Each structure stands twice: as C-alpha cells, then as structure tokens.
Amino acid sequence: MATDKVYLRHCILYDFQQRRNATEACRNLVKDRTCRICFENFGAGDFDLNDKPRSGRPSLIDDDIVKTMIEQGLFLTRSEIAKKLYSAQQTISDHIRKIGLMWKYSRWVPHELSEKNLLNRVVMCTSLLAWSKNEPFLDRIITGDEKWITYKKS
C-alpha cells in the first residue's frame, strides 16, 4: 500500500513539473485535498514522496507486562492474556512478536534458537546416531502424525 502512495505522488510530482494546478492533477488520481497538500509541499521545496513519521496512538501496555505474564504462566494463550489486560488480541500479538516469542506445542517459546539450543540439538543427534549403530532402535519405531509407537517383533 505504501508503494501505491509513492506511485501516486510520483504522478502528482509529474503534473507539478508540467505546470498543472492541483485540481487538474487530482482529477483522475486522488482526492482534491491530498493533491493540494502535495502541491503545497512541492512548492515549499519538499520533493520527498514517502510518508512522514507520525506518532499514532500510544500503547497502554508495555512489553515487560506481557513478558511477565507469559513467564508466570507459559500456557496462557494470546486471547487469555488479552482478556486479563483488557486489550485487543492484535495488540498482544504485536507485543509478543517484539519480545521474540511464538506459540508452539501449547506454550510460548523463543522464535530464534540460542547457541545453547543449537549445540544441544547437535549433541542429541550425535548421541542418537551413535546409539542407533549399536542398537538399531529406529527400526522398531512407527510414527503417525504426532504419535510414536514402539514395535517389537515376536
């Protein structure tokens, strides 16, 4: 959507450079007021076509509050946190994304694995491969979706 706005502003800039007025430029592009604002900016020497930073409504909830709630109850869902904080689920989702967590296996886990987690994976895989050489246990496991069943030949 932002690129659409920039494209329209390019078109308006073209009309400005062709010495057309704002009414002529906006006839087939945008609302008259939008075009007038652009022409005022161009006339003042501001040819930047991107949006200016705006403040927006400040969030009443701090990331630390959400993080504390998640640490106290790892199994709280996004909607439960939103109800407890009297906030919208999307607001809570934004804070959780900033914290760097995601919902997996019915609990909140870090989105990125730490060095310790990555090293632990390598160690576990290496030990399982070494174990499977001595004891071929992988031949006795049947998997289906999320269930594992051990199979013993009689």
From TrEMBL:
GO annotation terms (biological process): DNA double-strand break processing; DNA integration; double-strand break repair via nonhomologous end joining; mitotic DNA integrity checkpoint signaling; replication fork processing
Any one GO MF annotation of this record: DNA topoisomerase binding
GO CC field: condensed chromosome; nucleus; site of double-strand break
Record-linked Pfam families: HTH_48
Mos1 transposase HTH domain location: 5-46
InterPro entries: Mos1_HTH, RNaseH_sf, Transposase-MT_Hybrid
Source organism, top-level taxon: Eukaryota
Matching PANTHER family: HISTONE-LYSINE N-METHYLTRANSFERASE SETMAR, MARINER MOS1 TRANSPOSASE-LIKE PROTEIN
Name the UniProt record assigns to this protein: HTH_48 domain-containing protein
Organism: Heterorhabditis bacteriophora (Entomopathogenic nematode worm)
